[in-house]
Each structure stands twice: as structure tokens, then as C-alpha cells.
Write a structure and sequence with these properties.
133 residues; 8 helices; 0% strand; Arc Repressor Mutant, subunit A; mainly alpha; single chain
């Protein structure tokens, strides 16, 4: 499993349980993997977060997904250098909607919902629209 991509400890635990391994066997195996540095939640968090940033997701969504996968770390600690979230949001807007600001409140609300779903904060979205006006 680790040959293809990084996995969090929780992901490996769930996959091994599903294959019928006993709890004690899984615990011993995962401890050995961590000891030999074959599995690392920190490495998983960095790899996963980088992938999600490249897919256009924001900090709120990435943080939520990491927690969902058993990695309880702050998104700020995952990256050596934090991405420029505002710049990424601007690029996502340009890719999806072009350079034009929303024409009316209905369109603004629609775009806001989309960006919130992608994991950007209300303040980031508000700043984006203010810069476009």
C-alpha cells in the first residue's frame, strides 16, 4: 500500500482491518512501519496537502480532510512555506469565472458558495470580490 502513495496511520489501520488482520497484528506492524520511517503522518500530511492545493482547495477544506484521515495537525505546520491562499483563490476565480466580477448579488452568492465549498474563508472571498470592484 505504501509503495504507491503515502497513507496516514488511520488509513492503514482501516485497510488492514478490512482485510481481516487482528488488532494486535496491526498495531505491531504499524509501530514497525513508523520505527523504520516507512509511514509518517507528517509526510502524509505534506504530500496530501500539496496535492489538494494543486487541485484548487483552500486551507479550511484541507484542514478538515486531514483531520478526517486521522492527522490532527494545523495546516500552518504542514508546509515549510505557506501557500499564498489569496493568490490561489484569485487564480481559481480566473480559471472558473474569468476576470469579470460577479454581476449581481445572486451571482456573488453562487460564487461565494463555490469558494466556501472549496475551503476558502469568508474573509478571503470578500477580499477577492473587493479587489475586483
Amino acid at each position: 500500500m505504501l509503495a504507491r502513495r503515502e497513507h496516514s496511520e488511520r488509513e492503514l489501520w482501516q485497510k488492514l482491518l478490512a482485510k481481516g488482520f487482528e488488532h494486535a497484528e496491526i498495531e505491531i506492524t504499524l509501530d514497525e512501519f513508523k520505527e523504520k520511517n516507512w509511514q509518517s503522518d507528517d509526510r502524509f500530511a505534506e504530500s496530501y496537502s500539496r496535492s489538494r492545493v494543486h487541485s484548487g482547495f483552500g486551507p479550511v477544506r484541507i484542514q478538515y480532510e486531514l483531520k478526517e484521515r486521522g492527522v490532527d495537525t494545523s495546516i500552518d505546520k504542514v508546509f515549510d512555506e505557506l501557500p499564498d491562499w489569496q493568490q490561489l483563490l484569485s487564480e481559481l476565480h480566473a480559471k472558473k469565472y474569468g476576470q469579470l466580477p460577479p454581476g449581481d448579488m445572486k451571482e456573488r452568492a453562487k460564487r461565494t458558495r463555490f469558494f466556501q465549498h472549496k475551503g476558502y474563508t469568508h474573509d478571503m472571498i470578500k477580499r477577492l470580490f473587493n479587489e475586483m470592484s
